[in-house]
């Protein structure tokens, strides 16, 4: 365990200056493979008898620094960095569930995750039940013998629903299930889901962690507390010839999940994170708290100002008292409700599109968490693959606009919004 504070871990966690070259920055190890000392050493690495690097699809020294730093920032025991947020969610859940199994998920989800669950997982024979994250009775009613996980986002995308992590964790524990939480929107700076009972945390590192809109990546963090000898998870306790006739639980009770994720799904599906992208995420982590603090402050100013404009019919941001879960947000993320919010524009979908087309400074693109301010119309883009019924379930209305607030001076962003509103209303 690292006894340092968050900001110190963000700069130093998981790294010592390179002992050979004395390089202060983390080197980018662009190598596919690592030379074995001899054949016994090779065999021992393959059987997981000792730590070390074999092939960069499984592990890489640059990625290892990013992974250790993320685990420390989230308060977990280990993590596994992968090629995207989608890969992180897929690998985390496929480590738990197989054909015939089920997952219970809150329904307000990132569009890609919704599609992964509703379309791709169902083709693999894994059935995901989508439930209203505030209706705990119906959520618990969907759990049965085949259920392998409960999944939620900390702040639902894009309906801005705040997950009641302690309630979800209580239900998960009652049924011997791991709670898997997507912490992309809040980042470990604002919220550490493991501290509120989550078992596994996933991220799209593409967003606030990278922070500059430069690289796609994801990470899975293992909280290390889930009891895998639980009868729902026999595969964690089966002895495997590939790992020295031991089970993952025998190798490490604490890290069984992340070992299995890395050496089975990660190894087989091959969604490897490039060392270069890992290096970019390490740069991002160094300034994560400074950026997020400022972006939250800017979002707070802009959400309030937008709510006062006559052309705006509503603003949905957990940082505003008008949000139905404002107090729940204060409990889970007292330092701020993130930098993303949605709003509705009077005049409906056609006015919303004209408004976006009239912006000059704010970037119209499909991303969030960049240092620059970003805007999108979810119904016709990120959530367009969903049917109108599915859109309604995910909380996407036709006139909704999503804003991800960056580091620009809010005065300039507000001026851009005001001039665009003048042109379309
Ligand atoms: C972007 C995003 C993802 C997917 O991440 P990628 O890096 O784009 O694959 C998953 N969850 C949330 C909340 C996201 O914002």
From TrEMBL:
GO BP annotations listed: cysteine biosynthetic process from serine; L-homocysteine biosynthetic process; transsulfuration
Cofactor list: pyridoxal 5'-phosphate
Cited CDD domains: CGS_like
SUPFAM superfamilies found in the cross-reference section: PLP-dependent transferases
PROSITE patterns, per the entry: CYS_MET_METAB_PP
Coiled coil: none
A Pfam family this chain is assigned to: Cys_Met_Meta_PP
EC number: 2.5.1.49
UniProt GO MF annotations: cysteine synthase activity; O-acetylhomoserine aminocarboxypropyltransferase activity; pyridoxal phosphate binding
GO cellular component terms, A-Z: cytoplasm
Keywords for this protein: Pyridoxal phosphate, Transferase
Origin: domain of life: Bacteria
Class of this enzyme: transferase
Residues recorded with modification N6-(pyridoxal phosphate)lysine: 207
InterPro entries: Cys/Met-Metab_PyrdxlP-dep_enz (IPR000277), Cys_met_metab_PP (IPR054542), OAc-hSer/O-AcSer_sulfhydrylase (IPR006235), PyrdxlP-dep_Trfase (IPR015424), PyrdxlP-dep_Trfase_major (IPR015421), PyrdxlP-dep_Trfase_small (IPR015422)
Keyword flag Coiled coil: no
Family per similarity comment: Belongs to the trans-sulfuration enzymes family.
NCBIfam families: OAH_OAS_sulfhy (TIGR01326)
Protein name, as recorded: O-acetylhomoserine aminocarboxypropyltransferase
Phylogenetic classification of the source organism: Bacteria, Bacillati, Bacillota, Bacilli, Bacillales
């Amino acid at each position: 365990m690292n006894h340092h504070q968050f900001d110190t871990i963000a700069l130093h966690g998981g790294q010592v200056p390179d002992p050979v070259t004395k390089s202060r920055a983390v080197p980018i190890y662009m190598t596919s493979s690592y030379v074995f000392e001899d054949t016994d050493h090779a065999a021992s690495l393959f059987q997981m008898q000792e730590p070390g690097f074999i092939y960069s699809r499984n592990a890489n020294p640059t990625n290892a620094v990013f992974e250790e730093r993320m685990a420390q920032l989230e308060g977990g025991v280990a993590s596994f960095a992968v090629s995207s947020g989608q890969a992180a969610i897929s690998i985390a859940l496929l480590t738990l569930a197989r054909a015939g199994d089920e997952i219970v998920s809150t329904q307000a989800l990132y569009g890609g995750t919704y599609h992964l669950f509703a379309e791709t997982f169902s083709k693999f024979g894994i059935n995901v039940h989508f439930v209203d994250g505030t209706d705990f009775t119906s959520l618990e009613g969907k759990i049965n013998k085949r259920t392998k996980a409960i999944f939620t986002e900390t702040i639902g995308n894009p309906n801005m629903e705040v997950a009641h992590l302690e309630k979800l964790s209580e239900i998960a524990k009652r049924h011997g299930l791991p709670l898997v939480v997507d912490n992309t929107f809040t980042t470990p700076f604002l919220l550490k889901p493991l501290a509120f009972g989550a078992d596994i945390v996933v991220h799209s590192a593409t967003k606030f962690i990278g922070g500059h809109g430069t690289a796609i990546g994801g990470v899975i963090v293992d909280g290390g507390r889930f009891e895998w000898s639980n009868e729902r998870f026999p595969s964690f306790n089966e002895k495997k010839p590939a790992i020295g006739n031991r089970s993952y639980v025998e190798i490490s009770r604490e890290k069984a999940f992340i070992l299995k994720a890395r050496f089975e799904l990660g190894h087989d599906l091959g969604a490897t994170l490039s060392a270069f992208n890992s290096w970019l995420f390490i740069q991002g982590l160094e300034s994560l708290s400074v950026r997020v603090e400022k972006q939250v402050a800017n979002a707070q100013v802009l959400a309030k100002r937008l709510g006062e404009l006559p052309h705006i019919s509503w603003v949905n941001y957990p940082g505003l008292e008008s949000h139905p879960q404002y107090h729940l947000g204060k409990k889970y993320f007292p330092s701020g409700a993130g930098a993303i919010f949605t709003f509705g524009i009077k005049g409906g979908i056609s006015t919303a599109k004209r408004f976006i087309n009239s912006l000059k400074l704010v970037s119209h693109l499909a991303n969030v968490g960049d240092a620059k301010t970003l805007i999108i119309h979810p119904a016709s883009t990120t959530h367009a693959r969903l049917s109108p019924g599915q859109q309604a379930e995910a909380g996407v209305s036709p006139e909704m606009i999503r804003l991800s607030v960056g580091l620009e001076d809010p005065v300039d962003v507000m001026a851009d919004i005001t001039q665009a509103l003048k042109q379309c209303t």
